[in-house]
Give the backbone structure.
Amino acid sequence: MFFERPPPGQQALLLHVRAPGISWENETTELRELVVSADLEPRSTVVVTRTRPHPRWFIGQGKAEEIRRAMNSNNDDLLIVNHDLTPAQQRNMEDLLQARVMTRTELILHIFADRARTHEGKLQVELAQFQHGRSRLVRGWTHLDRQKGGLYMRGVGESQLELDQRMIDSRIRKLKERLERVQRQRAQSRRRRSRAKVPTIVLVGYTNAGKSSLFNALTDASIAVQDRLFATLDPTMRHLSLDGYGTVVIADTVGFIRDLPIDLVEAFKATLEEVSAADLLLHVIDSAAPEQESMCAEVDRVLEEIGAGMVPKIEVLNKIDKSALRAGVLGHRVHVSARSKQGLEALKEVLAQRLGVTNEPIEVCLAPSNGKVRAWLYELGAVVGETLQEDGASTLSVRLDAEQINRLVAYEGVSLQEALPDPKLLALT
C-alpha cells in the first residue's frame, strides 16, 4: 500500500509533464535529487508535453504504453511522477504498468519518514502520511465488494474500505491530540524566552542550501550534514553568544521545496510556528544554485503561507567557496561560507546590530522584604543568576527591557548596581 517504503536501491523511471514552452531541466534535476535522497536509483527520465492532464492516465495512452515497454526493457521497479495524480489515475497507471507508481508527494513523505529521528518528528510524518493516504485507500484493496457484518453485529454491511477509513480517522485524531500537546509545550517555551527577553533567530531556506552547516559553524554544534535534500528534518536549538549583544537562541529547521505537500505543512504546524514566532529570520541561500530567484520566491511563498511573511529577515548567501563571491556584507546580503567559516564574524556583527542593543544582564539588589519583587522577576524568566547576602538581601543578575526596568526601580528597597543602558537603545529591544 501507500505506506510501504520501496526497498533501497530499487530502479525508478522518472516522469515529468510540462506545459508547452515551459523549461523543465531544473525541475527534473531536482526530482533526481529527491529520488537519490530516498535511496532509490534514478534511471531514465521521460518528459511529456501536454496542455492538460489525461483524465484516466494523466498522460496519453500511447505515451503510457511507451513507458510500460521502457520499464520492462530496463527492468525498472517503479515509476516516479513529478506531480500529484488522482487516486483513479494512479490506480490505472499501476494496472497498466504492473508496477508501483509514486507521486512527488509520496516520494517526499517517504524521505521525511526516513529522516525523522525525534518522537515529535515521527508523529508529524505519520500524520501527514495518514492524511495523504486516506483518499487513496481504494488503491490498496481489491476486495471492496466483500461486506462484513450481519445480525447483531455493529456496522452491518460495512465494507472493508469503510472500516479502514474509520481506523485511519481514529489514528489521525490521536496523532493530532498528541501534536497539540507538543504545540502547547512549544508555546510555553516561547513565552519563557519572551519573558526573559532572549531573542530567537531561525534559519530558513530552500532544502540543501547549507542551513545545518551554517548552524554548526555558528554554534559549534554537530548536526549531521549531508549533500542531499532534506538531510535535516527535526528542528534543533542552541544558544549563541553575540559580542556587544548577549545570548540569543538560534534554531535550525526543515528546508522548503517547490510544491511542498500541504499535508506536510499542516502536520509540521507545531514546528513551523517557531518560524512565525521568531524575532529574526536568516534566509540561507545557496550562492552556487542555478535558480536562486525561483528558490527565494518559493521560500517567501511558504513563509507567507505559515504566517511568517512579516518577520524581519536577513538574506545570507552561503557556499561562496563554490561561487567565487567575496565574504562580508555586500548590499542587503551577507556573503559567507559555512564550510570555510568565511564571513561568519561579519554575520554575527550584523545580527547584533539588527537585533538592537546590548542584552547583557544588569545587577539588581533586593532587600529581604522584597520577596514579591523577587518572585515577579523569576516569573518573568528574567533571572540569570542570584547571590544571597548574610543579611538576607539578594543580588540578582537579570535581563529586562526598558518597560520592566522602569517598573522595577519604582519599588522601594530596590537598587541597581550597574549603570543602565541608554533608554533610547533599550526601547529598541
User: Anything to note?
Assistant: DSSP finds 14 helices and 17 strands in the chain. The longest strand covers residues 41-49. The radius of gyration is 27 Å. The chain has a mean pLDDT of 79.
